[in-house]
Structure formats: C-alpha cells, structure tokens
Design a protein that fits this description.
mainly beta; Jelly Rolls; Immunoglobulin-like; six-stranded antiparallel β-sheet; five-stranded mixed β-sheet; 19 strands; about 30% strand
Length: about 375
C-alpha cells in the first residue's frame, strides 16, 4: 500500500529556557530524568522567590492531536532537580494566553524523593497544535530548580501519534509493574509504577474513532473449529468437545479488551487484548469440565465501559458416535482459564486475525 509523504514543519525556536530533544546526543543533559518514549518535551525551570510563578514551554506538533476527538490529553510531570528545595505545584497550562482544562493528579512529596512517583502530576487537554506554557510555583515558601516532562498520553510506541499500533503495544505490557518483565514506561500514563485499567482508559481517551459510535457492544463466540458440529442441548453459551479453545470477538475498532482473572473476581488484571482495524480480537483459553465462564471488559474510543460474560460448556461425552452415556452430576461450574505463555516482553503488537475464525492471540 502506498504511503503519503509526511508534511514537514519548520521548527519554532523558543527562548528563556533550556530545551532537550528526545533524540539525545551523546552527553546531552537529562536533568536526572530517564524520559519515557511518549515524551514530547523536556525542559528546565526555576523559581527564585517564594510564591513566585515561573514558566516553561512545550510545543504540541500537529500529529500529536487526535483526529476526530474534541481534545487531546497530555501529561505534565514536574520534579525538583538534585539539591533543589522546591515542592512544585502546577499552577496552570496555557495556550494562546488562555488556561487549558487541567486535571490534577498527585503532588510531590519530599518524603518520597528518589521513588518513581516523586513528582507533581497533572493532565491538560488541548484542541490544536502549537506552544503551551506550563506555570509552576513552589508550595509554601519553597524555591529552586525543577524539570518539566510533557507527554502524549497513550503514545506507547513513541511515534507522536496515538493509533491501533499503540493499543497493540499496550496489551504486551499489561499489567506489569516497575522492575517486572514487560513493564514499559510509555504505557504507564500517570507514571505510578503499574500499568492497569486507568492506563487503558487513558489510552482510549486519545484513540481516534475508526467508526461512528453505536453504544457499548461486542459479539463473542468460539472459533468454528471448536464448536460442536452436531445437535446439542440448549445452553446459554456454545458447547465444545475441546479442552483448548480459541475465543473470538468483534467490537468497536480501537478498543482494548481486558480479561478477567481465573478466579472470576472481575478485577480484569489478568491480560489485555487489542482489536484490529475492523474490530476483531482473539484469545486462547483452557476449559475445565462443565460450564466455564469467561469475562471480558471492553473499553472503546467513545468512553464506553462494559462487561460481557461468555459461558462455554465443555463436554467430553458429546463427540459423535461416542459410546459413553451422559449422566448429570452436581459438580459446580468449571473454572476455565485464559491460556498464554506468560507476560509478553517488548512493545511490538501481534498480527490481528482476519476474521472471527482466526487463531492469532493478542497478549493473553
């Protein structure tokens, strides 16, 4: 498929602050930070008087703005430099002289210095590209130097755009924690050391709509090769003679589908699946005898969150021409589980299935 040549934009130089490009040259200053891949600007600021407001700036590129959304969410992370006494407070983020909508996260705590969470955090929402001014002051009478990291929320692969590739990369790192295999800082939207449902929802807020909203919906079934091909008793879900099955689904393109734990406790901290451009997703599962309940939570680009339970009846007696006779028992429903080879490393996405009958697996 032919691709269009990306437009080139003339850089806009800015004064009164130290700027750091993300493609760092050898020996370039980092101000003590190790910025994640979704960082669009890194700058240094300083307050010299108590209660004084100082400012730095960041530039939002045209490609950073999500097409089809009313606004795009960005993160601001402010941290004191070494030996600085400031306890930073984010006063405002402005564009064209007007304050942008701001959602506050956590506040820097000197007692947590050196921890991954030792920064003041806020999120702002911009409608168009251009420079933004980030105003910071010190709590109380604190003053000193600080760094400001500005990120594009949901840009897991660090290319400056939020799209399906980021969802596919996100599921490979869910639900890892800091220092665990598979953890990837750009997927941790609030940089609190764990990649969870909050980060999945943040990603979806910046995901472009690939289709008009139609309410929360999904279709779930077994892959055709796993379905019983002869008459069977009527159940609330499909029946199969296979222990190892493939569950296929279809929902709003761009959605992230969270998988419940094997305990069925609706924590959805087990794994995550991504959809392809048409909305298909797929995962492997392992049945136990009887009825197995598989729960999924779908987060779509339109802000819908909904849970779907998918019962699968695994029976070993119902094979065609089976010599065995079925006898009902009082066993409780089975506890089938989503299969997989453990946490996936890296951020490259899996190939999406071409249709519900596919056998590809998305990060389960």
């Amino acid at each position: 498929m032919a691709s269009k040549t990306p437009k080139r934009y003339r850089p806009a130089p800015e004064n009164l602050e130290v700027r750091l490009a993300m493609s760092l040259a050898a020996g370039a200053p980092t101000y003590g930070l190790n910025p994640p891949a979704n960082t669009i600007a890194l700058s240094l600021g300083q307050t010299t008087q108590p209660h004084a407001v100082s400012s730095t700036s960041a530039t939002i590129a045209p490609k950073n703005i999500t097409v089809g959304k009313t606004s795009t969410e960005f993160g601001v992370f402010v941290q004191p430099t070494n030996n600085s006494g400031i306890v930073p407070r984010i006063v405002a983020v402005k564009q064209d002289g007007k304050a942008l909508p701001l959602q506050y996260g956590r506040t820097y705590n000197p007692a947590q210095a050196g921890q991954p969470t030792d920064m003041t955090v806020a999120f702002f929402f911009a409608k168009h590209p251009g420079p933004v001014t980030i105003e910071v002051a010190g709590n109380g009478k604190s003053t000193g130097a600080y760094t400001v990291e500005t990120t594009l929320v949901g840009d897991v692969n660090g290319d400056g755009v939020v799209n399906l590739a980021d969802a596919q990369a996100f599921v490979n790192t869910y639900p890892a924690k800091t220092n665990q295999p598979g953890y990837y800082a750009a997927a941790d939207s609030n940089q609190n050391g764990i990649i969870n449902q909050y980060d999945a929802m943040a990603l979806e807020r910046n995901m472009p709509p690939y289709r008009k909203p139609g309410g929360g919906w999904t279709l779930i079934n077994l892959a055709p090769q796993d379905l019983i091909q002869h008459s069977q008793s009527i159940n609330s879900g499909p029946a199969t003679t296979q222990k190892n099955i493939t569950i296929v689904g279809y929902t709003t393109p761009g959605s992230v589908v969270l998988v419940d734990s094997t305990l069925g406790d609706y924590n959805f901290g087990s794994a995550a699946l991504s959809t392809d451009a048409r909305g298909f997703y797929s995962t492997k599962a392992i049945n136990t005898s009887g009825v197995n309940i598989y729960n999924f939570k779908i987060l779509d680009p339109f802000g819908h969150q909904y849970i779907r339970s998918f019962p699968v009846f695994w029976t070993t007696y119902a094979k065609p021409n089976s010599p065995y006779v079925y006898k009902p028992s009082r066993k409780s429903p089975g506890g089938g589980r989503i299969a997989g080879g453990g946490p996936l490393k890296g951020v490259s996405g899996h190939t999406s299935p071409a249709a519900p009958g596919g056998s590809s697996q998305f990060g389960a």
